[in-house]
Each structure stands twice: as C-alpha cells, then as structure tokens.
Amino acid sequence: MPGLGRYLAAALAARFASEGMGMAVVLLALQRTGSAAHGAFVLTAWLAPHVLAAPLAGAAAARSRRPRLFHVGALAGFTTAVAALAFLLGRAPTPVVLAVAVLGGSCGPMVTGGLSSLVAGLVPPGPARDKAYGWDASTYNGAAVTAPAAVSLVAAFGSAGPAMGLLAASGALAAALAATLPYGSPHGSQEPGPGAPRVGMGAGLAALWRIRQLRAITSATTLAFLGLGALTVTSVLLAASLGSPGGGGVLMTAFALGALTGSLTLGRITTVPPGRLARWAMAATGVALTVAAFTPSLPLAAVAFAAAGVCDGPLLTATLRIRSEFAPDGTRTQVFTLGAGLKVTAASTGAALVGLAADAPPWILVLAIAALQLAAALLHTAVAARGPDREPAVPAAAAAGGAVADPATVAAPAAAGPSPAGPSTVDPPATAPSAGSATTASGPLTPGAP
C-alpha cells in the first residue's frame, strides 16, 4: 500500500487547517473589529460554496489529465486563502474579505471528499481498503479534537493572527505531502485514464439519486448533519443551563474525543455491512443525546456527549465505504465531493436554525438534535430496504442519463419470469458495487450487506 501513510498525514494536515478555521476566524474578527458577528459572516462565506463547488470540483478532478497538479493546486488555493484571510480580515474592505473566503471555501470539497476519493487508488479492494477508510475517518475526528484546542492555545499565548498562520502552515504541509502521492486509477476499477472520454458533470449527482445505496446514505447523513451542525451552539446553551457557562467546550471536546475513539475502534469493524453500521451509529447517537438532554450536571452531560461521539465515530467510516463501493466507474470523486458538500451545507443550516431557536430550553434543542439522528436512521432503513439487494451495475454514462446497454441483454432476465416478490416499477434501479470496490458484483462481502 504505497503512499497510504503519506496520504493520512496529508489528510490530517489539511483537515486540521479546515477544522480550525471556525474558531480562528471568529477570534481574529473579534480581536481586530470587536465583533464576533463579522467573523460569523466570513465563516458563512467560507462554508457556503461547498455544496455548489462540490460537483464542479468533482467533475474537474475526474476530467483532469494531471490529477496530481489538480489536487495539489486545490490544496494550495485553500492554503493561500487561509493565509490571505489572516492578513486581510479586519483590515481590508469587507467585500474583499468575503470574496477571498468564497474562493477559499470553493476548494473545501477537495479537502474533505476529494481527498478521501484517493484512498481507492492507494489500497486494493477488500478488508484492507475498509480499514484504510477507518483510518481516513479518524483524520477528520483527530483534526476536530486538536485543531480548535491548538487555535485556542496559540491565541491565548499570542493572538489570533499567529493561530491563522498555524492553519496556513498546516495547509501548506498538506499540499507538499499530496505532491508526493501516487495518482492513478483505483485498484481493480475501470476508471478512465488520461485522454479517455469523461463522464458528464451531472454524473455524480445522478449516481447519488439513482443508486439506492448512495441515495440512502446521502439523504440520511445530510439529515443527521442538520442536527449535528447545531450541536456546538446547543452545547454552550446546555452547559449554561447546568450552571457552567464556559462548559460548552468541555461537552464538544468530549464528543470529539468520543468520535475519535469510535472511529479507531468500532469504525474498523469490517465484518458488519457498512449500511447496517451506519444505521446503528445514527440510532445510537440519537439515544445517547437523548440521555444527555436529561442529565442534571455538566460531568454527566460530558459522559453522555462522549458516548454519543463514540457512537457517531463509525458513521463516517461506513459512509466512505459505501461511496467507494457503489460509485459508478468514473464518478467516484464527484460522489465523494458532493456527499461531503451536502453534509457541510446541512451542518451550516443547522447552526443557523439553532441560532433562531436559541431562546428555547436547551434540553429541548438537544432532544431535537437527537430526534434528527433517529429520523436519519429510519430514513436510511426505509430507502435502503426498497428494491432487490443487488442489481446489475449501471455504467457511469447511463447514470448520467446516457445510452444504456443492449436492450436484449436487459430484457433477457425478464424472459425467465417475474421474481417471487413481483416486479418493481417505483424505485429507480440500484447498482452493484463498482469494479474497484471491496464487494464484487456476485454478492456482498459479508452477509446482509445493503
């Protein structure tokens, strides 16, 4: 598995920079302008482009004849924007600062889903790739734990400017490491090589909708992140209601540490089908947060938040495995960037919604977040359960709305007669895993796979 260690180092460095931006931007704006709201506007401009830039970034990465240059360039653009904001925020006109934030945020999908799509090119299909996605998920959780703490520490002993500089240096390290990675077609897949016809820009979006497994995990995690995006603000309100106004950071640190533990332990379980693991993770997170809503003290709330984090940890690993297994050939990067963009957008929407409902009792807000996790688990169950467990793979061109295979080959199975369950005319066809997945078209890797 050449390059996996360097990839994980690059991913951790890039996601460290990304995870630290929220706190660093607000602290810097507060220091230079005296207004945290100014930082919130800049942060919104940073996050807003994710869902719009995701399909463009994914399609551009898939079409690029020089993928190394594209990925390194995206990370360099991300880093340049962080460095520019460290200098301009509070000094340059607001429209200029917001424009820089939008440009930097447009590179964000390549830091999240775009980087994760490279794992398939570094690790062959099978349990080894599933474990690699577990390690990849741990880079998100590890960054979520360390970045805010590092930013707060540097800002406390110096100022928010050097803290932003630390994030820019981490982004530069990620770009340098990414330049050393091997870039090629995913192991065992038939991804088009340089000069081959490329899939359309809408192929990734079409795959997310038409392929049942991708539709299930994308819709469920987007709903779940609508709640998780509100968890930071809600934790501050809950801690204040428990008599500890500064305890919100304790609760979120407990959740992040729990998530890191969950991704390194439960997330590495490859004997459980990823769809089932995702459902369990969302449902258990909802139960743990329900307990947190009724805790009478901050220490007990921290324990409940840590338990919720442990349960949430495997969700990202399961999500990455499903995207890799079921993305049609040629659309993997689009599927990864789109899925990540939708989750980031849902999280930012959740943060905005909890701001509007901040006057509600905190325990009700926590219950609402827990209810969204349980609803997400039910949504995944409902969507993933529709239709047969395995169907013939749909080529990327067909997923994008292009021509399908020879009608004779499609009609042949029908000649044998309808299945015992009867024909289905409602649900769009699902696909078998792509050729580069850990699960072959002949059947699931483990019993009960979705």
Number of helices: 19
SS-derived structural category:
mainly alpha
Please trace the helix and strand order, writing H or E for each element. Answer: HHHHHHHHHHHHHHHHHHH
The helix fraction, in percent, is: over 70%
What does this structure look like?
- The protein is an all-alpha fold.
- 71% of the residues lie in helices and 0% in strands.
- It has helices spanning 4-33, 36-47, 49-63, 67-88, 94-106, 108-116, 119-122, 127-157, 160-178, 203-210, 212-228, 231-241, 248-264, 274-293, 298-326, 332-356, 362-385, 396-399, 407-415.
- The longest helix is centred in the first third of the chain and has 31 residues, at 127-157.
- It is globular and about 55 Å long.
- The relative contact order is 0.14.
- Residues 190-197 and 388-450 have low confidence and may be disordered.
Quick tags:
disordered C terminus, globular, 19 helices, single chain, 450 residues
What's the layout of helices and strands?
Blueprint: H1 4-33, H2 36-47, H3 49-63, H4 67-88, H5 94-106, H6 108-116, H7 119-122, H8 127-157, H9 160-178, H10 203-210, H11 212-228, H12 231-241, H13 248-264, H14 274-293, H15 298-326, H16 332-356, H17 362-385, H18 396-399, H19 407-415
Helix pairs in contact: 1-2, 1-4, 1-6, 1-8, 1-9, 2-5, 3-5, 3-6, 3-16, 4-5, 4-6, 4-9, 6-16, 8-9, 8-13, 8-15, 10-11, 10-16, 11-15, 11-16, 11-17, 12-13, 12-16, 12-17, 13-15, 14-15, 14-17
Q: Can you describe this structure in just a few lines?
A:
By secondary structure, this protein is mostly helical.
